[in-house]
Amino acid sequence: MNGLTAEEIQALPAMVDFPRAAAALSISRTTAYALQREGEFPITVHRIGRSLRCRAVDIAAFVGVQYDGAGSSHPTPSENNPIHQR
């Protein structure tokens, strides 16, 4: 199984579904779920409702890739945005 490239990891959204996180770590889906059940998945897994998610920053750190959140679909606060002004 091939993991994601550095560019693909940098483009990930802030929270990644569990199968994609497993793929990024070059772990098969079956093995990933087994590791998660045993509490042995190599990064923190968050249960949100019925789904499992992992933080992209944790994936990047594990594989040694710099992650700046550029792939996130959320805009960063701007000083020119009146919503973010005090």
Q: Nutshell version of this structure?
A:
This protein has 86 residues and is an alpha+beta fold. The chain has helices at 6-10, 18-24, 29-37, 56-63, and strands at 15-17, 46-48, 51-55.
How are the secondary structure elements laid out?
Elements: H1 6-10, E1 15-17, H2 18-24, H3 29-37, E2 46-48, E3 51-55, H4 56-63
Antiparallel strand pairs: 1-3, 2-3
What can you tell me about this protein's structure?
By secondary structure, this protein is an alpha+beta fold. It has one domain. The protein is built from 4 helices and 3 strands. Strands 1-3-2 form a 3-stranded antiparallel sheet. The longest helix has 9 residues. It starts with 5 loop residues before the first helix and ends in a 23-residue tail after the last helix. The relative contact order is 0.22. About 6% of the residues have low confidence.
Number of domains: 1
What is the count of β-strands? Answer: 3
Average of per-residue pLDDT values: 85
| Coarse structural class | alpha+beta
Q: Tell me the Rg in angstroms.
A: 15 Å
Task: Please indicate the percent range of residues in DSSP E strands (runs of 2 or more).
Answer: 5-15%
Q: Could you list the spans in which at least 5 consecutive residues all have pLDDT below 50?
A: 72-76
Helix content: 25-40%
Shape: globular
Q: Helix tally?
A: 4
Quick one: biggest sheet? 3 strands, antiparallel
Order of helices and strands: HEHHEEH
Ends distance: 50 Å
What's the arrangement of strands in the largest beta sheet? 1-3-2
